Amino acid sequence: MSALTWQDARGGVGLRVTVPVAMSPDQAARDLAPRLSALAGERAPASYDGEPARAQRAVPVVTIDGYSGSGKSTLAAALARLVAGWQVLHLDDWYPGWDGLAAGADIARRIAADLRAGRASSYEAWDWEHGTTGATIRVPLAPTIIEGCGAIEAEADLAVWIADPGEEERRTRALARDGQTYAPHWQRWADQDLGRSIH
Question: Tell me: the pLDDT tens digits for 98-126?
Answer without folding.
Answer: 899 999 999 999 999 999 999 999 999 99
